[in-house]
């Protein structure tokens, strides 16, 4: 995928996020303060507003620009976590003009590492990290096993969904859900849901 393909993918993600206002807001209203959709939607609408400029940028500059914009425009935990993820991922893209299957795994791994470091969270803490961690692991295993492209796309999509659903039974260790007496058990994490939407589309573009 080149810069134009990546921008097309971001536009598709932005439309998906925009259409999930009610559900995501409901999830963050249960476990958090109800603003997760507003935060993530603001971020993707910012990306949409930069479309023309982003199309002219090399991949590393594109990711770095998106990360810096998210840091400055998106509020809440999401702004910092996604901002840092994009900026860190941009460092894997210096001199790269095509994100192929192995590079895609490298980019997602860099984003995951940045989020885990910045949020001091680990898999199982009931956050947006859960679907991303599971996808990176399954994606790397699929590459290792030499799985064909279409299979990798399905693995990414299925695993992201599972990662989101797995947060339902988890006991929150990070974020606002930890303030609840029940630690959110029984409810899907909002950040995990929006991470799933993104990974589902990313999988289809990267390996579809
Ligand atoms: P805020 O909680 O500040 O209102 P958002 O509502 O935008 O921010 O994002 C909440 C989401 O952020 C949670 O659903 C969870 O997935 C994620 N999250 C919260 N804290 C952390 C953390 N320390 N590490 C990773 N993800 C986190
Ligand atoms: Mg919130
Ligand atoms: Mg908030």
From TrEMBL:
PROSITE patterns hit by this protein: DHAL (PS51480)
SMART domains attached to this UniProt entry: Dak2
Pfam families assigned to the protein according to its UniProt record, in alphabetical order: Dak2 (PF02734)
GO aspect biological process, one term: glycerol catabolic process
Listed SUPFAM superfamilies: DhaL-like (SSF101473)
Enzyme class: transferase
InterPro entries cross-referenced by the UniProt entry: DhaK_L_YcgS (IPR012737), DhaL_dom (IPR004007), DhaL_dom_sf (IPR036117), Dihydroxyacetone_Kinase (IPR050861)
EC number: 2.7.1.121
Pathway: Polyol metabolism; glycerol degradation
Enzymatic reactions: dihydroxyacetone + phosphoenolpyruvate = dihydroxyacetone phosphate + pyruvate
Domain of life where this protein originates: Bacteria
Tagged with keyword Transferase: yes
Transferase among keywords: yes
UniProtKB keywords: Glycerol metabolism, Kinase, Transferase
Domain DhaL: 4-204
Subunit structure of this chain's protein: Homodimer. The dihydroxyacetone kinase complex is composed of a homodimer of DhaM, a homodimer of DhaK and the subunit DhaL.
Record-given protein name: phosphoenolpyruvate--glycerone phosphotransferase
Organism: Dethiosulfatibacter aminovorans DSM 17477
């Amino acid at each position: 995928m080149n810069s134009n393909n990546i921008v097309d993918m971001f536009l598709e993600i932005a439309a998906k996020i925009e259409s999930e206002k009610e559900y995501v807001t409901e999830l963050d209203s249960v476990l958090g303060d109800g603003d997760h959709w507003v935060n993530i939607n603001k971020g993707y609408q910012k990306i949409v507003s930069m479309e023309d400029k982003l199309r002219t940028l090399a991949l590393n500059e594109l990711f770095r620009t998106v990360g810096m914009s998210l840091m400055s425009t998106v509020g809440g935990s999401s702004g910092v976590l996604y901002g840092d993820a994009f900026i860190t991922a941009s460092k894997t893209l210096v001199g790269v003009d095509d994100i192929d299957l192995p590079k895609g795994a490298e980019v997602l791994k860099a984003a995951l590492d940045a989020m885990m470091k910045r949020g001091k969270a680990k898999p199982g803490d009931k956050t947006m990290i859960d679907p991303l961690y599971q996808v990176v692991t399954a994606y790397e295993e699929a590459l290792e096993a030499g799985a064909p492209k279409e299979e990798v796309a399905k693995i990414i999509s299925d695993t992201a969904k599972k990662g989101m659903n797995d947060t339902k039974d988890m006991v929150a260790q990070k974020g606002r859900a930890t303030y609840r007496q029940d630690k959110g058990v029984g409810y899907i994490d909002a950040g995990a849901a929006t991470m799933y939407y993104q990974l589902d589309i990313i999988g289809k573009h990267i390996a579809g």
